[in-house]
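Teaching note: in complex prediction, the entire set of molecules is handled at once rather than each chain in isolation. The prompt given to students was simply: 'Predict the structure of this complex.' The entities are:
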Amino acid sequence: MSLIDVKNLTLQFDTDEGRITAVDNVSFSLAPGEVMGLVGESGSGKSVTAKALMKLNARNGHYSNDSQITLHLDSGPVDVMSLKRPRDMAVIRGGAISMIFQEPMASFAPAMTVGSQMVEQLLIHSNMNKRQAKELSIEMLDRVGISDASTRFNQYAFEMSGGMRQRAMIAMALSTKPKLLIADEPTTALDVTIQAQVIDLMKDLVDEFKMGIIFITHDLGVVAQTADKVAVMYLGRMIEQGPVREVIRNPRHPYTQGLIDALPKLDDLGAPLRAIPGDIPSPLERPSGCVFHTRCSQIIGDICKTHLPAWADTGADHRTACHLCHQGASA
Amino acid sequence: MSDPLLIQTKDLSVTFSIGNGVFKKQQLKAVDGISIDIPKGSFFGVVGESGSGKTTLGRALLNAVPISDGHATYNDGEVTYDLADLDGAALKDYRKRAQLIFQDPYAALSPRMTVRDIIAEPLEVMGLTANREETDARVREIAAKCRLNLEHLRRFPHAFSGGQRQRISIARALVSGPQFIVADESVAALDVSIQADILNLLKSIQQEMGLTFLFISHDLSVVAHTCDHVAVMYLGRIVESAPTRQLFKNARHPYTKALFSAIPSLDPDDRGSAQKLVGEIPSPTNQPTGCKFHTRCPYVTDLCKQQEPPLVTCEEGHAVSCHRWEELQEGITTA
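The expected output is the structure of the full assembly:
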């Protein structure tokens, strides 16, 4: 049984320049204990999609009527789209779903100690009293590898280093025992050595807590190291998804191939770096047909410019939305 | 040494005074006794974690922070400057010859100036062109090199994506006709797909115009693909320095090796095999004694805690600062 099912999620925003589509007909599901890497450039809609799972988007956002998000909890399924009042939202926000952000300095309130913020959320989301909440918080800080946790508990975010802040953020997100953890570029602001430590920590914690994780990143190396499956997004659309080995070793969408080719490889220093030509278009100027056709090097004709490609099965649990894959199947 | 040296430093140090109050003053040694030679026309890489002093080194070479100790000279064949003692007309002239490209293209460009004005500003401030026509011609020429068209020049920075903004920053750095460019984490804020494009652009500009780059980055894989020579910094000191290929084939210092193994592998079946570094870089105000890396080094001995290892040449062009590099080379792995 899956933990979360997302169907036809479409989210548009009203802006001064017009209505823009940030998430376009996205569907996926995630099982408990599974880690999904959500990959794409800036502006591809990864963060908006993740926030939509908690309906954490600005007021000018409009969900389409057929958008469906179902969260399967022990107490029964929750239809996220139908939640309206903040009180109902508390079940998911910080309760069943926790989120870790990219910049740990911006995620903690600067004028409150880290400990008081950890206790505060536990008081809201559980039946603990203050003492129990403090004990659990210190235990969690210790669990994520922060030495001298009871001292750190009383410190402010600015007194910690970047890696330690991110650990504290993870401790805080996990202390409510969420079913689903959304990690939005949690290691991007960290040094590689610290990034490696945080990735290891997250892997240990998945094994221990058995929660599902949606790991948002633009670094395919990080995905290869953490995820079980991968979904690639471009301009609000999901264009390829499948098991991590499949997608990384045998990418079928030209965009996924481009992302992998653009990574500097250490085993061949002489190889030229291949960039994906052009920039991601503005959401106000969404291309017709396949959204990637303006930058695609393998365009096969007018069909790419006029028709949205449907999903094609390109392997076990591996799906790609590209006309090329359909062409191969019919030929 | 075949190529003449553009930048040469000897025991270069930069010290900041921090804290307020006469008795609370502390000395922070951000760059500590660095000697590097940057040949003219090379792409010289500096790698290290945050807090290793790489940015301060770059700024010291641009005369943007005062050099507290040691020597640094700049010699482009036309002029020679002592960077520790530059002022007046010489400093003004040096500003033309040495330029900086910043990390964050969103913060580096004024939102209230058009792209044309941004690129033209160095020319106007330095008085390098006689009139507006000449300025415009120069701006257009440089913009074309950075793949910006005339339409782009009329717009404001907010209309551009990260990669395009970085190309504007590069154009601005190039417009005064510099010989030496410090690129400080210039691709760190960009997506991988755009990062490759900017690296290729920097590389082609460097070759076409014969420029010398000091390329500062925390990402070894990026450095590997662009630089000719790499220096690895840790807490203000160089721990290893070698030609790129040599360093990648045969890293000697445990810190360099750890940096390599921390790069996430693209192979999903190669998880966690890497040797991970424990702990974090110590605070520069409270530096460890002996070898500065000893608090995180898996091969630490008593000698490492007491004595700082000298930077010794182990091969042509390859220097390492570790007490045990010879032993480690032979495969002894524990203390």
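Point out the following to students. Residues 192-209 of chain A form the longest helix (18 residues). The mean pLDDT of chain A is 88.
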